[in-house]
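User: Before I run my own analysis I want an independent prediction to cross-check against. Here's the chain; please return only the structure tokens and, at the end, one sentence I can use as a sanity check.
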Amino acid sequence: MALQAKKIKKTKMYQDVVAQIEEAILDRTLAPGDQLPPELTLKEQLGASRGTVREALRVLEEKG
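Assistant: Structure tokens:
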């Protein structure tokens, strides 16, 4: 039996952080105009490194 190749989607950690923040905005946990918690708080809440949080914030800033 031969297995068919499927595309495996690898995401980087910062992309997961971006997705979580976007989801919080969409489900109104964060309202437009709300201030995000400080980097260190986000780092602890999301279980990510400070660099990962910074990269995610850069991406979100570029997206507007």
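Sanity check: The radius of gyration is 15 Å.
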